[in-house]
Amino acid sequence: PEPVAADPHAEDLHATSPPQLQNLVDRLRNGESGAMEDLYRIFSRGVRFYLCRQLGAQELEDKVHDTFLIVVQAIQ
Description:
The chain is mainly α. It has 4 helices and no strands. The N and C termini lie far apart (about 35 Å). The model is unreliable at about 1-10 (pLDDT under 50).
């Protein structure tokens, strides 16, 4: 497999505090407009790097989307 560069956006996940994540989960559960987009922005960056390392670049977008839907369903 090809080497994967470090994710330049990984700091976004680390910069999100537990209270901020709890607020985001609450917003999702309440059906607040824009909450899903906020979660996707944070989620996709971190999981994309992880999945690429595990699976390679092929099928990456599908796996990111599938994993995101699982997370959203679990939150809701």
